[in-house]
Amino acid sequence: MMGQQSGIQEQLFFCFSLENHVPKDHLLRGIHCLLDLGDFRQQLSGFYSPIGRPSIDPELMVRMLILGYCFGIRSERRLCEEVHLNLAYRWFCRLDLDDPVPDHSTFSKNRHGRFRESQAFRLLFETVLQHCMAEGLVKGEGFATDASIIKADAQRQRRVEGNDTVDWGDPEQASRPVREYLAAIEDINDPKETARTLSLTDPAASWTAAPGGPAFFAYSTNYLIDLEAGIILDVEASMVNKAAEAEATQTMIDRVEEKFDLKPDRLVGDTNYGTAAMLGWLVDEKDIEPHVPMFEKSERTDGTFGRADFTFDAENNRYTCPAGRFLKTAWRSKKKNPYRYRASILDCQACPLKSQCYPNMDHRQIDRGPHESAREVARAITTTDAYKQSRKERKKVEMLFAHLKRILLLDKLRLRGFSGAQDEFLLAATAQNLRRMAKRLAITKPIAQVLPA
């Protein structure tokens, strides 16, 4: 006989446990075991008033934010709806079936207030990173760095060109991103900053364009990762240009060394980090091997001798040409350019190799930059097998950016200003570290009791 489902009957008593309805191999179980928010609550204690109505638990809001970034839920309104409906999300947030879910507007007030003023997201990221280090996922031998462009929450149409004058009005009445931008340019006092294309809603964003595509406003997220398991060691928001990205990498390396006493033996990067100044900083100041390709403009393609055909004698501060003659710094031009080495006109005129060296000039000269010794170190590293292996390992940081945009759906920011971009990048990096650590360690132990007493 064909059965028929009976109507819904309300029960007077029933027994229900969220613990029994969350699969044992669910990703949130592993993340829950690895997430310790005790220091986070202590960090925020001074930013809440001891009197008045009790506020929403900051740990609950952070758990909801981590949910959103772990599973690509970009809308705070939708995040609240998902936590209300999804049993696993309620379990992770320590909410019982009849506990209310915070309103979506609460996140904005706390993000721009208590969380940002207390550096809570930075503390959360570092707490998770310390757990990764304790589990042996960070080796500290090799680091990799790279940057990726993330679109800003700014329309292309609402922009002014560099030669246009902008009247921002009363700074006290302006929006938060505008106030932060005006305070920043007042501190740096750089005329070039106000001469670029600006967004009226997010003036700190950079006006950039991908090859073959239209221009847009964006920020760069800079990652510094450990090559052992691809754990993110630090993240920094910056403008979209090579100089700012190299400076962000220096900031991250210094911060990791100061905070965790970690300094790598080698740094892996692309050509953006192969500038002379960056190589000089790595080799001379930090004693780190630069496993990065360089911009080589000294070599020639017309068959004449390049700089590599000349041997530098550091002890005597001179070059030796293929004919055995010396190139020295001229005493007349030492003050003007102390890094220019010139050969004698008499030597060059009588040289049988002049047609292969410098056929259109009377004598040969070579400019040697102040960081040329560091460039030589980097040039020698590119011929080793370790460098070839580093080029293969560099894809680990690129895979993190692909995961950030395609899985976590962070291809466009929702918060504005450098502080907003930094908050989003920190939360996304925290979520990536938690996901990777949970999957690597495969923690699936059941939690006896996750709801607060």
Automatic annotation (TrEMBL):
It comes from the Bacteria. InterPro entries: Tnp_DDE_dom, Transposase_InsH_N. Residues 320-438 form the Transposase DDE domain. Residues 17-112 form the Transposase InsH N-terminal domain. It holds the Pfam family DUF772. This is Transposase. It comes from Methylomonas fluvii. The lineage of its organism: Bacteria, Pseudomonadati, Pseudomonadota, Gammaproteobacteria, Methylococcales.
